[in-house]
Amino acid sequence: MVEKSSQDGERKGALVSQYRMNNPTYNKRPTQSLFIHHGRDFNRIKREGKRVVTLFFTAMIAPAPTQRGRVGIVVGRRLGKAVLRNRAKRIFRELVRSHCRVVPPKKDCIVFPRQASLTVKHQTLVDTWTKTLIHEEV
After folding, report:
1. 39 burial type by CB count under 10 A (0-12 exposed, 13-18 middle, 19+ buried)
2. pLDDT at 21
3. Of 85, 95, 101, 109, which is least packed with CB atoms within 10 Å of its CB?
């Protein structure tokens, strides 16, 4: 049986915490602020938001209390089994991360993916996403 020395683990932990201390802008998850996490925010957007329907998703857009625009992804059981729901969430999370500059500032958005978004080409989904958010920003 091979034993690892605890010295290696301690050294690695010290380097990581030293990096964090020396870099005040270090953020473990830089895209975390792009997404809506709290139920109260989802409820506010559903209550105050404007609905936009496309072939691939439905979006609700409302004014945000923060300076930066955020996106929430809601996938219900109507979409399908858990594998399909998780895939839809992954697709839209990546869409938000890769095109975060398209999300209008001072706007919160909830996205409800549709089944068509699972089979469409990624570029078509990107084009629809971009057009929808740019149109709603004006």
Report:
1. exposed
2. 52
3. 101
CATH of residue 114: 3.30.230.10
| Beta carbons of 53 and 60 less than 8 angstroms apart | no
Q: Is 69 helix (H, G, I), strand (E, B) or coil?
A: coil
The total domain count for the chain is 1
Q: How far is CA 30 from CA 7, 26, 100, 112, in A?
A: 30, 8, 12, 23
Count the neighbouring beta carbons within 10 Å of the beta carbon of residue 113: 24
Query: Bridge-partner residues for 59, per DSSP?
Result: 52, 111
**What is the domain extent for residue 122?**
30-137
The residue assigned the tokens 């072939």 is 55
pLDDT tens for each residue of 15-69? 545 545 555 544 445 566 889 999 999 999 999 999 999 999 999 999 988 888 8
Q: What are phi and psi of 54, to 5 degrees?
A: -125, 180
- pLDDT at residue 11 tops 50: yes
